[in-house]
Amino acid sequence: MSPHTPFNRRQWFKSSAAALAGITLAARLRADTTPSAPAGVAPGEPVRLSLNENPFGPAPAAVAAMQARAADVCRYATVDATTLINTIAAKEGVEASQIVFGAGSGEVLEAYGALLGSPAGEVVCANPTYGQLTNAMKRRGSTLVEIPLNERKEHDLAAMAAAVTATTQCVYVCNPNNPTGTTVDAERLRRFVREVAARTPVFVDEAYLECADDFAASTLVGLVGEGLNLTVARTFSKIHGLAGQRIGYAVTTPEMAAKIRAHVIGGPNLLAYVGAQANLDDSGYVDRTREKIKAGREELLALLRELGRDYAEPQGNFVFFHTGRPIEEFRTAMRAEGVIVGRPFPPYLEWCRISIGTPEEMGVAHAALRKVLGIKL
Ligand SMILES: Cc1ncc(COP(=O)(O)O)c(C=O)c1O
């Protein structure tokens, strides 16, 4: 499995000139209202479709709320944290004691890995999948048992269940999966979790699930109430458009929540709580954003079909498709056309992950794809 760790991401930010472009892009998205310069695209600057960000951003009310509270950052975030934890507990139908906040859901994944990782056992996961939790465990000596995706590039739940032994420390399921974007059938996943969580802790990462067509029927949070050893993670980085603010959370049993919380070092900042709260208070925000992401996704799939490209059935804010040539070569060609796409994801070294951007960004991406994929090798 290729690591997708914060360390790698930090390195990338340090070394890449694109980081600067990303910062100016974000600033422009907020500041530029002139009709002659479409949001997110500026001459000479690349379009960043490599990190599964949501460039539609948080709700305008969330931006206003964070601006209004900027001077309060001399305070610790106690009141805002309590307000948000109560809002989330009501939304998820659980007690506040069952919620664990992190500086992004990434910190929750790290804390969970710190809690369970040791040389005494294994973590069962898909390959490829998001590597933050499994790498946190590996760093502590755990062995990774990586189960290949099935032919639809979905988790192979039967093979994963069969890989669980007496020394398994946990099972990680990423739904939708990063990098493939596929979901697993909700009923099959429920059966899997009921069976496997009786034997070992299960972690279901729902970072992208609110982008999916049927979130309500697909989320596993409802199973936490059955007393299973299940932890479900969500983030405000994806559909809520708050990636730079660093806030996410897990829902689990009160006992597990206390154990995970003990390994959380940082947690969100005051403005992250304020922004997340305002986004949740805007009841139509998630649906509106999902529609925008879905529209961009559908248009991209239509283009890929036209260009004769195979793709995994996507439910997140990104698409994983067959390039027909080495991904490094493809990335270089796309970069030359002004588009930064995802890194290589072994073993699929002729596949590319591309995030859904604004319509203007996707216009640049479509033109680049037509040019790069249109060239016969
Ligand atoms: C599947 C998955 N889980 C968790 C994360 C962590 O995101 P964050 O720490 O921003 O919540 C990511 C980030 O890309 C992800 O793809």
| Bound ions, cofactors and other small molecules, one mention each | pyridoxal-5'-phosphate
Distance between the termini: 29 Å
Radius of gyration, Cα only, in angstroms? 20 Å
Secondary structural class? alpha/beta
Name the CATH homologous superfamily of the largest domain.
Type I PLP-dependent aspartate aminotransferase-like (Major domain)
Unreliable stretches (pLDDT < 50, length at least 5) are 1-39
Number of separate strands: 11
Mean pLDDT: 90
Lateral strand order in the biggest sheet: 2-8-7-6-5-3-4
What would the CATH topology of the largest domain be?
Aspartate Aminotransferase, domain 2
- Outline, from the CA principal axes? globular
**Helix share of residues?**
40-55%
What is the H/E order? Answer: HHEHHEHEHEHEHEHHEEHHHEHEEH
Number of domains: 2
The first-level CATH class name of the largest domain: Alpha Beta
- SS field, number of helical segments: 15
Strand content: 5-15%
Query: How is the biggest beta sheet arranged?
Result: 7 strands, mixed
Structure characterization notes:
43% of the residues lie in helices and 14% in strands. The N terminus is likely disordered. By secondary structure, the protein is of the alpha/beta class. The protein folds into two domains: 144 residues, Aspartate Aminotransferase, domain 1; 220 residues, Type I PLP-dependent aspartate aminotransferase-like (Major domain) (Aspartate Aminotransferase, domain 2), CATH 3.40.640.10. It contains 15 helices and eleven strands. Helix 6 links the parallel strand 3 and strand 4. The strands form three sheets. It has a seven-stranded mixed β-sheet with strand order 2-8-7-6-5-3-4, with helices on both faces. Strands 1-10 form a two-stranded parallel sheet. Strands 9-11 form a two-stranded antiparallel sheet. Pyridoxal-5'-phosphate binds next to helix 5.
